[in-house]
Design brief:
The radius of gyration is 19 Å and the shape is globular. 48% of the residues are buried. The chain is built from ten helices and 13 strands. By secondary structure, it is an alpha/beta fold. Bound molecules: the ligand O=C(O)C1CCN(c2ccc(-c3cc(CO)ccc3Cl)cn2)CC1. Ligand 4VN binds next to helix 2, helix 7 and strand 12.
C-alpha cells in the first residue's frame, strides 16, 4: 500500500524577535543579517520546550483532520533539541494526546531530520501501518551561544508536521538519503559532559551549537546540489529546501538551472529552525494555497545539515 500526506500543521512561539532587537543585544545589524542570510525575524520561546511546540502541532493535526489519537499507529519526531535524552519528545507527545496505540521515537538527523523521518514514516505505511504523524520540532534558542553573533542571529524555534495515511495512488516517487560522519564536527551541538568520579576529562567540549560556516556552506552547494540532481524530474512544481540561508538557495537554483521561483522560502520570518524548517514551509504553502494536498503537484523536499546528513524525497501531493 502507498503513503500520502493528508494533513499539515505548524506552531511557532509567540515571541517574534527582529534583527533590530538583536542589534541592541549584540554587535550586529539588520542590514548585515538580512543581506547575508535573508532572515528578518525569528520566533524564540520564553517558557516552552520542544515537546510543548510538538504537542501543539499534534493537537492541530488531529483537529484539522478529524482523526482520533487512538487511531494513530506511530509518532516520529525529528529534533536535535529534545527536552530530555529520554523520554523522547515523540513519547511526550504520545502521552499528552493519549495516542495509546502508537509507538513513538525521535529521529536525530539535525536539519535533515524531517526528510529522514518522512522517509521512515512512508516505509511504515508501505509495510502495513495505517496512520502516523511525522513532526519536526526545535528549540534551538536553548543551545545557542547568545554571545556569539555568528550563530545567535541565524536560528529560531518552531515545529510543524504532517499526517501520513494509506492511499491507493503512489505519491512517494523517489528518495536519496545520505550521511558523512567524517565531517561530523563541522556542525555540533549539545555535547553531554561525563561527570562520573571515574572519568578523566581530557579535552574541553562546548555544549553550544557551533559550526564551521564555510565548510557547511560549501557542502550545501556541492553535495546537496548533486543529491537533488539525482532525484529531480523536469516537471517538478516546487522545491522545499531546508531554510538555512537565502543565498545558498539562490546558488543551488543556479547550479541546478531550475528557476528561482520554484524554490519556496520562509527564513525571512522563521530563521533557521533545523528539522522544523521544511514542514513549516510546507504548511505555510498549503495555507497560502501555493500547494494543495490532493492536487498531484510534484515537489522535492531536501534537508541538509548536521551529521553531516542530507537527503531528498520526490513526491506528489
Ligand atoms: O558571512 C556570511 O555570509 C555568513 C556565512 C555563514 N552563514 C551560514 C553558514 C552555513 C549555514 C548553514 C547552516 C545549516 C544548519 O542548519 C545548514 C546549511 C547551511 Cl548553508 C547558514 N549560514 C551565514 C552567513
Amino acid at each position: 500500500q502507498h503513503a500520502k500526506i493528508t494533513c499539515t500543521s505548524r506552531y511557532v512561539p509567540k515571541n517574534a524577535v527582529s534583527n533590530e532587537q538583536l542589534s541592541k543585544m549584540m554587535d550586529t545589524s539588520d542590514e548585515w543579517i538580512s543581506s547575508r542570510t535573508g532572515i528578518r525575524s525569528r520566533n524564540i520561546v520564553t517558557n516552552e520546550n520542544t515537546s510543548d511546540l510538538c504537542i501543539k502541532v499534534a493537537e492541530r493535526l488531529l483537529e484539522k483532520s478529524g482523526k482520533k489519537a487512538e487511531d494513530l499507529d506511530f509518532i516520529l519526531v525529528a529534533t536535535m533539541t529534545p527536552d530530555y535524552g529520554t523520554p523522547s519528545v515523540a513519547c511526550l507527545v504520545q502521552g499528552h494526546i493519549s495516542a495509546t496505540r502508537a509507538f513513538a521515537f525521535d529521529i536525530s538527523a539535525a536539519c535533515s531530520g524531517f526528510v529522514y523521518g518522512l522517509s521512515m514514516g512512508e516505509k511504515l505505511i508501505r509495510t502495513g501501518k495505517k496512520l502516523g504523524m511525522v513532526i519536526g520540532g526545535e528549540t534551538l534558542s536553548k543551545v545557542l551561544d547568545w554571545n556569539d553573533r555568528s550563530t545567535a542571529v541565524l536560528f529560531g524555534d518552531g515545529a510543524a508536521g504532517v499526517l501520513l495515511e494509506v492511499d491507493k495512488e503512489e505519491h512517494f516517487l523517489n528518495e536519496k538519503l545520505q550521511a558523512d560522519g567524517q565531517r561530523a564536527l563541522s556542525l555540533t551541538s549539545g555535547y553531554v559532559e561525563n561527570k562520573s568520579p571515574f572519568y578523566i576529562e581530557e579535552s574541553e567540549h562546548s555544549s553550544y551549537l557551533s559550526m564551521t560556516g564555510r565548510d557547511i556552506y560549501d557542502f550545501s552547494l556541492n553535495d546537496v546540489t548533486k543529491n537533488i540532481q539525482e532525484i529531480i524530474e523536469d516537471d517538478v512544481d516546487y522545491l522545499l529546501l531546508h531554510q538555512a540561508n537565502k543565498r545558498i538557495i539562490e546558488k543551488i537554483s543556479k547550479k541546478l538551472k531550475v528557476p528561482r521561483e520554484k524554490f519556496l522560502t520562509n527564513m525571512e520570518h522563521n530563521g533557521n529552525t533545523s528539522a522544523a524548517s521544511i514542514p513549516l514551509l510546507l504548511d505555510e504553502a498549503v495555507e497560502k494555497g501555493v500547494l494543495q494536498l490532493g492536487s498531484n503537484q510534484k515537489i522535492v523536499l531536501t534537508g541538509y545539515g548536521g551529521g553531516l546528513t542530507w537527503g531528498s524525497i520526490l513526491l506528489t501531493l
